[in-house]
Amino acid sequence: xxxxxxxxxxxxxxxxxxxxxxxxxxxxxxxxSELEHNNYYPTYDKMILLINRLxxxxxxxERELHQNKLFLEDYYIQRANDLSTESKxxxxxxxxxxxxxxSVAKHSLRLEHKRLNMLGLVDFIRHNGHINYAKYESxxxxxxxxxxxxxxxxxxxxxxxxxxxxxxxKVLAKQFVSKFQDxxxxxxxxxxxxxxxxxxxxxxxxxxxxTALSYCQVSQNYTVKNHDLYNQLISxxxxxxxxxxxxxxxxxxxxxxxxxxxxxxxQDTANYYSKLCKQLxxxxxxxxx
Length: 289
Hints:
This protein is 71% helix and 0% strand. By secondary structure, the chain is mainly α.
């Protein structure tokens, strides 16, 4: 990640300025050299004069420093996201081992959380959903300690909920409801239906069918407001599963939803929920022709 000293050196070289002319009247050339190698930091007033000598305002300098930091963060995060989206598990594992390492992740909380989330995804896939929840506990400790959740916390919770022990997941769901039940500004957040669909699935796997229905209802409240047909179909599919397990519905409507995923070119989604049905001892026919 680019430091203050490295950025000053980069700007100085971009402008074709020597250390001597840059430092003249502000600090010694040797001190400027030490600053560029992160071994010395001048007083605030001298730093302002130095930045002005380079033709930048303090705001411009801070923006450029921030952009360099974000560029590197976004590089690792986007690489990891792309590989996970494309289900390239081996390549993702290699990235986390060789490039997006633990030392890189220590540079920011955002990187630390993303790397842990991606490690969990690799672990989850390679071990067929059987993971050591304790390895990912820090993600949820962070969320439980946060007084205020914003978009970042919502995205983190939605993306990593599958790594939480079910008892912890239920606590986090209650926290969400308590924090946002009266906050209309988050009704447009597309992550919320994903979160509650995941919670509904976890509830089904833990034989809490009425709880699953309540999570489906929260999801559907948001999908209707956002016109999110895909996640609405998922929520309704999970709802049908819960009702079947409660002896309140037959398999016919559930099969219709699975077939609808196929018609909409979501074959993988249909296959996934067909597999979930088998795990829950729900018998459905899936015609992929």
